Amino acid sequence: SQQGEEDPQALSIQEGENATMNCSYKTSINNLQWYRQNSGRGLVHLILIRSNEREKHSGRLRVTLDTSKKSSSLLITASRAADTASYFCAPSGAGSYQLTFGKGTKLSVIP
Amino acid sequence: DAGVIQSPRHEVTEMGQEVTLRCKPISGHDYLFWYRQTMMRGLELLIYFNNNVPIDDSGMPEDRFSAKMPNASFSTLKIQPSEPRDSAVYFCASSLRQSSYNEQFFGPGTRLTVL
Prior knowledge:
heterodimer, A: 0% helix, B: mainly beta, 0% helix
């Protein structure tokens, strides 16, 4: 499996603003997943985007995927204090059932 | 479903003692993963099972670590003897092989402190 690298490492925004975090990876993928981890909790799956998709929405989340640049971005619109968490991307190759997580982006949403 | 269940949630032990962490995956899931998370190293995959069989244990740090999955609804991660550097949060996750999806469902973790 391959590891994604999230950028920035930390992000601090005001409530109501949009938050954008990025993920880069090295080799071809079958899909890419984003997870959220609240302090002291396990990771929670947010959204999966397949390699043949360019954009996907789920509520206030918007994920894009650019396979030519081997990158993905996660946009959280109209952020809330409850969005404060670490966000991880997990690129996954075909037939791969294990995921390798990077260090994540630590998002702080200030009320 | 109750989700992935881990026990205990917190464990404090002294160096040299044996520690056993337990995990119950989501019913019907055929993959089970053990991770360790520390500030320094992030989230590391230790070992994973498919249909109760260990597939890749290359992440297990030392022979002091062992994992078993005697049946589809139970797995253990054992550390013997434990050392202070084993202090971390240990997560168990499970997933279901379904077409190309490999979404993982994580348990709440066990916070291990070795004194």
